[in-house]
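QA checklist item 7 of 12: single-chain prediction sanity check.
[x] sequence parsed
[x] length recorded as 278
[x] structure emitted
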Amino acid sequence: MFLRNLTRNKVGFVGTLMILGFIFLAFIMPYFVPAPHKADITKIYERPSREHLLGTDSQGKDIWAQIVHGGRDIVVMAFLTGMIATFIGVSLGSLSAVIGGPLDSFLTTLADVWLTIPRFPLLAVLAGLITLNNIITLALILAVLSWAGLYRAIRAQVFSIKERDYIEAATALGLGLRHIIFSEILPNMMAYIAINFTLAMTAAIYAQVGLVFLGLVPLTRNWGVMINLAWTQGAIFFRDSIYFIMAPVVAIALFQLSIVWMSRSLEEIFNPRLRAGR
């Protein structure tokens, strides 16, 4: 049943396969492709060949090997940020709408203030104050900076759902706040939550790549670092460096596209109305 719903939306299914491909690339392929540690100045900006599938960079290092070994941080950070941001937004949004009163007023005001703060400049300032050399730390900060928008969206959805008859019946029966939120409200919002989870992932990728490109976080091996090196080493001035510049850009774009497409299948799985309409 799950696989049938997953494959029902062709675009979403292609996106899911692409996500699995990126996971394979990031976690399995590094065991088969040697890390590009050694530079070779005799092979600078070589074109794609059997020996170097995507050519070489400004130091003669294999670009394909850099793509393979640079995907893990991006994938893990995006997933962690999406999970944490979604958990915070869904938890606070649900509690705010169900409980109401002073708690709702406080959280809504806090979210309004939070949304007025430019996120990326604040992130850049935090990067100068905090050493962001840990994926978990970076994911946590990105999630904390992203919760307000999701909170408002979830709060509005819960306000709409809690007026329905079955929620009022559960309240009248005294089933408790935990049962109402986790058994009655959230299951009817899973499609919406899944979509927002994927949006949080894509935003996190852009933020991390932006920080790395600007040199605001320690340079580890990932696609953002490849873009940074291509810029700082003047690769844009060399015609033969097109593969060095475009390889990480295309990898990031395809990963983002696969996440967006995968959200279509997730919506198909969690939204019975879409399944019934086909």
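[x] summary fact logged: The chain has a mean pLDDT of 81.
[ ] second reviewer sign-off
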